[in-house]
């Protein structure tokens, strides 16, 4: 499973627990390196570390490797019985160092701007992370405390710093509906999608069960015969009316559920690149049957459908700019081998 899918599932899970977008962000960040460790730990490490080695400078102050390790252990990114050195992944070490540096400069700025963290924010974040970890790794409360958080006060103290840092980040990079709308209006060409029609020959029964091999072969032959008639000049609409087993012939832009049935990226690419009036070059097989697809038009995606996607994208751009600005403001220098 790719990291993208992993973190997407984490976000959906935590979103059910919290109403605050900020707390979702913080909880995700507190979980991130734990999950990174779990999924990349088999990789061998080529970076050998002296625990007192300087890995970065922040505003002239030295950040040593053992301080980074201590920071990781404080916030249970790793099992408290492990150390960074035996995690066995250069990627993990580099990401952890960057994380500690970024959090540090965000925290410094948050203090300067008097960002306040409430007890409720800390408790909610702690409970959410605990619930996720115990569920993900099938731990009971006692096992969680023994393995990750035997000293809650110490953990909460560390979490307070994280929450303050990312509360500042959230305030500075939040995107309003009006900002998202302005971007949408200025880039409408990016939010257009095709409208398609589909001649569908099913390879499953009414309950969704796969048909026999003989029946599937017959379905393929029927699809090929229909396509041959299309090539001979028969109208797509007439063939659709006569042969399609699809209840609803119109496929909304993006192909809706149909797109999800295609596991082959090449098939999706073929459909998405069709011009208005064009058909696919041959019947396509999905998990549900054979499809002969024609693009019949283009429509604009409504703002409400893409609003959150736009806000996430714009917020991410703001975050990059903010971090770059703070890196310069605090004269951050990360050693080359950890970049």
Automatic annotation (TrEMBL):
The EC number(s) this enzyme carries: 5.2.1.8
GO molecular function, one term: peptidyl-prolyl cis-trans isomerase activity
Ranges of residues in domain PpiC: 197-297
Listed transmembrane segments: 21-40
Reaction(s) the record says it catalyses: [protein]-peptidylproline (omega=180) = [protein]-peptidylproline (omega=0)
Pfam families, per the entry: Rotamase, SurA_N_2
Protein keywords: Isomerase, Membrane, Rotamase, Signal, Transmembrane, Transmembrane helix
Gene3D superfamilies assigned to the protein according to its UniProt record, in alphabetical order: 3.10.50.40, Porin chaperone SurA, peptide-binding domain
The protein, known as: peptidylprolyl isomerase
Originating organism: Peptacetobacter hiranonis (strain DSM 13275 / JCM 10541 / KCTC 15199 / TO-931)
Lineage per the UniProt record: Bacteria, Bacillati, Bacillota, Clostridia, Peptostreptococcales
